[in-house]
Amino acid sequence: MIQHLADGVLVGSVLSLGAVGLTMVMHVLRFANFSHAELLSIGAYSALVFDAVFSAIMPPLATKLAPLSMTWALALSMVFALIVTACSAFLIDRMVFRRVRAKGSELSMVFASFGVAMIIRNVIGLIFGLGTQHYSKDIVFAVVISRDPMLLVKPDQVFTLIAALVIMVILHLILSRTTLGYAFRAVAENPTLAQINGIRLSRMIALVWLVGGGLAAIAGVFYGLTNQIGPMIGRDLVLPVFAATIVGGIGSVYGAVLGGFIVGIAANVALVILPSGYSPSVPFMMILAVLLLRPHGLFGESRP
């Protein structure tokens, strides 16, 4: 039980990063972006490509950051993957969502996001193949934290949790202490009034996509550190990420963070009483429960 709880916290850190970017887009643009999870795939595979390039060009960068399986090349690749994914999210909005937003309805945006998700998923499969890959082929052994009860944790998982928490703290400081954060919250609450007060809506929308894409890239790389990566990452994570967003409350960054940990813990603890094949259904059941009992989530505000 303790092992499942610890695994849930570690998984929740990745879901939280993905959910934060999704809830920002949903709150500002008012549509459910089902292609957001595919940005995690773009981030994970971008890091894989840059890792191979940097390791080949500069062999010293292939040195591991012990006790992690991560190399210096992969650490550097995360920065470039973040940039690539953020720019991809921005370009997707410019080429698809902005056009639909200008001529269609919110429902049209949802349908468009399904199409974008399918395109990204199949393009990745076409380029990299349908098989799974790893950032490192070396075996990383778990560290025994406790023997009674037995608790095993891999160094990569601890790094992922700490790094995710640091990123969340930085994001909190930006949203709560800077003019940029105030502008974002103003646009999210009332875009028209924000424009009247001199906030450029187009610039804020672009910023939301860049930030959301960057967070998704980090989440994708962190997922790849502790799991194998494949073209179906987006398909596998879209439901947990949406569940985290809905549980926390659409529009609440802090709710998305908490929702990610709740979903991660619930899905892993459920393995104690459910067969592993039923684990993916836990986020779906959580979405149904929240929509029935508290439709606006734990920290979201009900809208008229």
Features:
single chain, 304 residues, mainly alpha, ABC transporter involved in vitamin B12 uptake, BtuC, two-stranded antiparallel ribbon, 11 helices, 3% strand, globular
Description of the structure:
With 304 residues, this protein is mostly helical. The chain has a single domain (2-293), classed as ABC transporter involved in vitamin B12 uptake, BtuC (Orthogonal Bundle), CATH 1.10.3470. It contains 11 helices and 2 strands; from the N terminus they run H-H-H-H-E-E-H-H-H-H-H-H-H. It has helices at residues 2-29, 36-57, 72-103, 106-128, 155-177, 179-189, 191-196, 201-226, 233-248, 253-269, 281-293; strands at residues 143-147, 150-153. It has a two-stranded antiparallel sheet. The longest helix has 32 residues, at 72-103. The radius of gyration is 19 Å and the shape is globular.
Write the layout of secondary structure elements.
Layout: H1 2-29, H2 36-57, H3 72-103, H4 106-128, E1 143-147, E2 150-153, H5 155-177, H6 179-189, H7 191-196, H8 201-226, H9 233-248, H10 253-269, H11 281-293
Antiparallel strand pairs: 1-2
Helix pairs in contact: 1-5, 1-6, 1-8, 1-9, 1-10, 2-3, 2-4, 2-8, 2-9, 3-4, 3-8, 5-6, 5-8, 9-10, 9-11
